[in-house]
Amino acid sequence: MRVIVSGAGLGGLVLAHALRDHAEVVVVDRDAHPGDTGGYRIALTPEAVAVVEQHVPARLVDRIRSVSDGPRTFSQFTIADSRLRPIVVAPEPPGQDRMLCQRRALRQILAEGLGDSIRFASTVTSAEAHAEGASVTLTDGTRIDGDLVVAADGARSATLRRLAPETSADTGLVGIAGSTPLGRAPRFPRYLDHGPALAVDRFGTGMFLSLTSRGLSSPPADLADAVGPPSLVWGLIARRDALPDVRDADPEELAATASVLVRRWHPWLQDAIAASAADRTAAFSFRAADPSEPRFPWSPCRITAIGDAVHAMPPTGGRAGSTAIRSAGALADALIAEADIDVAVARYQSRVNEWARPAILESLGPVRVITALRHPLAQLVAGPALGVAGAVGAALYRLRVRGTRDD
Questions:
Q1: What does the pLDDT look like over 354-398, one tens digit per residue?
Q2: Three-state DSSP class for 9?
Q3: What does the alpha-carbon distance between residue 72 and residue 193 come to, in Å, rounded to a whole number?
Q4: In the beta sheet, which residues pair with residue 170?
């Protein structure tokens, strides 16, 4: 069996490891190197960690853990107001096995051990299913034939263009994200010590905040750059109509735009944005699949998909990477257990919604809140409500912290 994986993201690489002893795997990716990737810290759920443990060599799993933050850094999730006062502090179930590491470092590690199976600097322009197989065509005209093609090349997948031109839609939200080394950042809210936070104002502007690469005594030298220094990751979320066109903006302009949108927020945030690293500041749009629609809107064939290519979701739920890895594991399990490729693919596709639909719905929750706050009446109601909730939540949090100290 020859499997062509279009895209060397997290899901595509896990799939390649899972099938390495059962098939000839060819992974093609447009990047020139596994380190050529964006993104910040990724939190893999226990279910995704189980897939990694099952299908990735133990040596590489140990490498991933060596660059991952400990579980105490994600023991709760906080929702805050624009003054960064905690409104809701939701504890995570204790004892969960999570992997919390930089996406770039995770991708570099997963690329190890696959050797010539990965063809970097190779961009897929199209894919075609045949009677007993499938093929991809690259930008230089090269055609690669196989028994199965797996689209793992993200939302608006070129691999799926002939089968399903659009498996996701623009949510109307835009993000600007950055990373500020803790040595340059002002003292952060103490609840960030225990997990990420999402703050929102009455106009529907959101801000994701998280600490990363903390407690890593000595990451491997070859991964030090990918891991980066202990940092505050911030991610602005706003409706497209509230932002100027940021597609061609440089990092300094992006940081300035983010700073303007939170000018009425706690001044701490202004200082944190101003100190962000230019090479870690970027803009992106949010796309999402429709949770009520089928994941595979085409007749079953020798082309299937994992990850954002078929179940795109915004980063507001922190579930996209984990969901892609779960799909990769499920597809690999089906192909390994079933000799008939068509039966294996059908089995996999029939199950994807078990984990993809809940993840999409969870990720769309904050999107719906931010979108609803475009209306002046909603803003009028939200202002006082957030103020009261912030004041009460901050007082309760202070009591909780005081009680913990007394214990």
A1: 999 999 999 998 888 888 877 676 655 666 666 656 565 556 555
A2: coil
A3: 8
A4: 287
pLDDT 10s digits, 29-50: 999 888 777 677 888 999 999 9
CA–CA separation, 130 and 134 (whole Å): 5
Kindly list the structural domains of the chain, giving each domain's residue range(s) and its CATH number in brackets, ordered by start.
2-69+98-169+288-365 (3.50.50.60), 171-286+374-406 (3.30.9)
Helices 46-55/320-337 angle, 10° precision: 40
* Pairwise CA distance, residues 203 & 374, whole Å: 7
Residues 6+ apart with CB under 8 A from 267: none
Which one-letter amino acid corresponds to residue 23? Answer: A
Contact 327, 306 (CB under 8 A): yes
- Which of 318, 310, 328 lies closest to 363, judged by CA? 318
pLDDT of 299-348, one tens digit each? 889 999 999 999 999 988 889 999 999 999 999 999 999 999 999 999 99
Query: Tokens in use for 161?
Result: 């263009």
Name the residue type at position 145: D
Give the CA angle between residues 335, 340, 343 to the nearest 5°.
80
Question: What pTM does this model have?
Answer: 0.90
Instruction: Give the integer Cα–Cα distance in Å for 258 and 233.
Output: 13
In the three-class reduction of DSSP (H, G, I as helix; E, B as strand; rest coil), residue 113 is classed as: coil
Whole-number Å distance between alpha carbons of 380 and 94: 38
User: What's the gap between Cα 168 and its chain centre?
Assistant: 16
